Write the structure tokens for this entry.
Amino acid sequence: MANSGLFEILLLAMIAGVILFRLYTVLGRRTGHEPPPKDAYRVSGPSETPLTGDAALPARTQPALTAADPLTRGLQDIHGADRSFEIGHFLSGARQAYELVVTAFAAGDRAALKPLLAGDIYGVFDSAISARESKREKVSFTFVGFKDVKAVHATLKGRVADVTVCFVAQFISATLDSNDAVVDGDPKSVREVTDIWSFERDVRAKDPNWTLVATSGGEA
């Protein structure tokens, strides 16, 4: 199966270090104006539209969780340590973060990426963009939407909260040379990718930012 070099670089870059998201206002914080979530552990649904794209995709159904479920216990522990934490709001922010990073990298938008990435990681992304530019290549990229976004693991160890999110995303991606010939990918085919991102935060720290500490995944 042909994989876009764009997302191979993206995955390697994220595994190589830690990405700091400046998402105080969107990751796990109440604003006081949110409608009650229909499902506390997911944000995607058949009635929602993706942040980019023409139409919503059907969402998978997550089984109901009970107090004995490890995920439920973990989320309850985090909420107990930080009363402002709301998993539905956190997942909404995680969706925005995912789309923002992959879209900005595809576009070679350094200005958008720089405030979102730790210095060393930004250097990796910048080098990959520069390599693409030196070959006069560009990426044709359309983010279609999410099929599913859900928390799959949550723990509180001491003062460190960890939430792992599974993203099932669809997009169209192809790398083109200076003559617009396809080097990799397919500009007409929708690809489905499943990515697992783990976020951490010290719940007692004044810094409200969540840190992306691990990623894994690939095409379905």
